[in-house]
Each structure stands twice: as structure tokens, then as C-alpha cells.
Amino acid sequence: MLQVRDLRTNILKPASLSLSAGECIAVRGPSGAGKTLLLRAIADLDPNDGVVTLEGRDRSTIAGPEWRRLVGYVPAEPGWWADTVGEHFGEWTAALALVRHLGFPEETKAWPIARLSTGERLRLALIRALMALPKVLLLDEPTAALDAASVAAVESLIGARIRAGLAVLWVTHDSEQAKRIAHRLLVVEAGKIREEAFEWLATSP
Amino acid sequence: MASYIALNYWELAAASVFVFMNAGLSVIFSLRVHRSMLVAAIRMVAQLALVGLVLTTLFSIVSPLWTGLAALGMVLFAGHEAAQRQERRLSGWWSYGLGTGCMMMASVLVTVFALLIAVRPNPWYDPRYAIPLLGMILGNCMTGIALGLDTLTTSLVSRRASVEAQLMLGATRRDAAAPVTREALRSALMPTINSMAVTGVVSLPGMMTGQILGGVPPAEAVKYQILVMFLIAGGTGLGAVTAVLGGVYRLTDGRHRLRLDRLASPRVS
User: Which of A55, A140, A187, B189 has the most CB within a 10 Å radius?
Assistant: First the structure.
């Protein structure tokens, strides 16, 4: 579904990968290796070169805003542009099922953004991104600041979407999580990406 | 022409006593500003003497070419000043070019409007009217543009995550930058609104005071002042809107990305 060929920025080395519908690829690598840059380049948030296609359509033929609705991206530190949670959602009632699934009450709508914890922000940003009904979702450590119950809720939610056809690129430091959620594994090191077999994970500490 | 009292050089020298008094205070309280105070005073005298000379010549020849050149010089200098006042500047020629271009467009347009429609001197480019009007409009336009661009660049940097969050969800660059754009325009227009609100109550504008000292009846001076305030509001609004929108255009691109890489690295101060 998503084809990336020789995607590069002034920091990221040429990267190629292909992601099928209903597939999840875990992305690992040390901090500062370029994982975030890779996701940002695919979402077309930084100047980049290379060929990216979605279902055969070349990215350069699709306007930036439309591309980012098709290829959603949830950064490690999501941004907020208004004061309360509800203002960041087009229609709160439509988001309610997801909101409840991730452990929030309905009144969350009126909560001020400034009082949210990091984990709450991550989960709400994930819901916000899912509401746009993307075909591909790029997740940058979506469960980094969550407790075990919330991690399980997020994994089950995304897992169900993947089974329904969503393609996901999931950055995670947790090799157990990678095994639970992903079909394949990419390693990013010093701006270069390579695919690794999952067996390697079993022997790594 | 109405009468006015001409000053001679001894009277000016007598008034300069106050500058020396300030310098003396600086020495007594070790403020260490006496040197810069005296240099500033000397600069002021030299610059004004030069301007007096230039204006005398300009007014006597009434040439469209020399009036235009003087106006151009004023705009270029104002553009330099506006660029200097920004903490985070656009990289390359955009820093100077955007502010100066918008300033030139807005202040020249408003000045020409005033000359052709309101004041109507003969000839319309008579430097005795054109240069002071341009100067007053330009000075305020410069402040507005400098404030607007400064707010725009610093807010885009500090609120990058919030702007990009909207882009990530499929907003256009215009929508994503709208809150920051509004903030920049508001701060550009605020000084003009504030000064209109208090003019005549808290402050007597310099131009009106000057005309009254020059012997013009207060009622006539007030009419000129009202005209100038309208022109200033127009010039500042036009200049700030084009400069801020130009800044948004430059700091985003056709793929609707935020391009903070097009800002020069911050100055070390």
C-alpha cells in the first residue's frame, strides 16, 4: 500500500520500505538515530527527496493537507492549539467510543489541555489522528508514558484497526511490544534503515 | 504666512545646558552614561543640521527626481532599522527585502493618496508636503512591521508544535498559521490604536504642537493632525498585513510544511 523509495533529507540517508494494508512494522533504534525524521519525511513535514506512493498514487500528485489526512502521524510530543480538549476534535460525540475505549470519561471534552499528563496527551492525540480515518498511521512511541492498562488498551485499539486494514509504522523501544504488535521490524541507526528478522530480538538483552 | 519666533544659536546653546546637567548627574551617580549621552546629543545636532540643509535644498528646487530619491533613501533606512529590531530574522535577503518592500508599498501609496486627494499641493510632489508626510507615515509603518514580523517569527518558533499538529491533521498552511498570524497582526496594530485613543488627552502630537508653535491656528493644526492619524493607521495596517502575510508565505511552502529552516540562526546578544 505505502511504497517508499530512496526517501532522504539532509540528515536521513536514502531509505526504502514497503508497507502493506493491514501490516504493522515496528521501528527501533537508538535515540537520535533518525526514527522521528523518517516518520516526518514520510508525512512530508520536512523538505525531502525520493519517491513515496500510496496505493499507486505518487505523493507529489497529492496536495500536502490531503496527503497528511491519508497518512496520519502522531508525534512523541503532540501539539495543541486551543485551550480545552474538545476544541481539538471536529465532533466530540463521534469520538466518544474511542475516548471511552482509552479510559476517558465523556467530560474530558471540557478538560484544559494544560492539566493533561503526558500519557493523557498521547492517548488523546492518537484518538484525534484516528478520527481522520487515515490509511496509514505513523506512531512515534505512542505508549512511552503509559501505565500497563493503558498500553494494553492502545495496543488492542490499534491492533483492531490493523486487522481492519490500517497500515502502521510504530516506533517503539520495547522489544516485547514490537513482537506483540508488529509483523516486521526495521532498525534505524545513524540515519540508515535496515530490516531485521524478529528472531534477532529473542537473543537480544 | 503666520508669524513665528525664530531661535538664534545662543538660545539653543543655553538650552543645551540640560544635556550637560544630565551628564553631570551621570558622573555623580556613576551611571556611566555621560559619554553616550553626549555622543547622542552631538549626533542629534549633526543629523538635524544635515536634514535642515537637505530639506532647504529640496524645498528650493522642487524636483520630482530629487524628492523621489530622498523618499527612497528614507524608505531604505527605515527598512534597515526594522530588520535590526527583530530577534529572529528571515534568512538571506528576505529579512531586509520583505520589510522594506512592504514599507515602501504602503507608505508611498498612502502618501500619494494624501497628496492627490487630501492636501493637494501644487505641484502634487511638492517636497514641503511630501517629505514630512512620508516621514510620519513611514516611522509608524516601520514600528508596525517590525513588531508584526518579530511576533510572527518568535511565535512560530515557540508554538511550532501547535502549528504542526494542525498540519499533521490535514490543515492548510493558512489555517494552521492563522492563530499566530492573528497574534502578529494584533501586536502590529496595537500601538496605532493606542495612540489614536489617547491623542489630545494624554499626549499632544509633535506635528500639531509644531504647527501651533509655527503660528497655525489650533483648529487648523488639529485638522492636519486628524488627517495624519488616519494616514498613519492606513499605512501601518497595509504595511503590517502585507509583511506578516508575506512572512507566513515565506515560512511555509507549497507542500504546506512549516519551514523554520528559513529563519536565520538567533543572534547572540
Answer: A140
d(CA A60, CA A67): 9
Interface of A with B (CB under 8 A): 43-47, 63-66, 68-69, 72-75, 77-81, 125, 128-129, 132
Report whether pLDDT(B164) > 50: yes
- Provide the residue ranges of all domains of chain B, joining segments of one domain with +: 6-61, 63-262
Residue A199 pLDDT grade (very low, low, confident, very high; cuts 50, 70, 90): low
| A126 within 8 A of A142, measured Cβ to Cβ | yes
Q: Contact A47/B166, CB-based, under 8 Å?
A: no
Query: Which among B142, B147, B139, B146 is positioned nearest to B228, based on CA atoms?
Result: B139
Taking CB atoms and an 8 Å cut-off, how many pairs form between chains A and B?
67
Q: For residue B90, give the DSSP letter.
A: B
Given CB atoms, is B177 within the 8 Å cutoff of chain A? Answer: no
Query: What residue spans define the domains of chain A?
Result: 2-76+136-198
**Greatest distance between any 2 Cα atoms in chain A:** 47
Q: Is the ipTM of this complex over 0.95?
A: no
Cis status, amide bond into B127, omega within 30 of 0: no
Quick one: fold of A2-76+136-198? Answer: Rossmann fold (3.40.50)
| Alpha carbon of B163: minimum distance to chain A alpha carbons (Å) | 7
In this predicted structure, the answer to whether residue A204 has a pLDDT above a threshold of 50 is no
Above pLDDT 90, what percent of chain B?
78
Which of B166, B168, B260 has the highest number of chain A CBs within 10 A, making it the mutation to test binding with A?
Answer: B168
Chain-centre distance of CA A69, in angstroms? 13
Count of C-beta atoms within a 10 Å radius of residue A86: 15
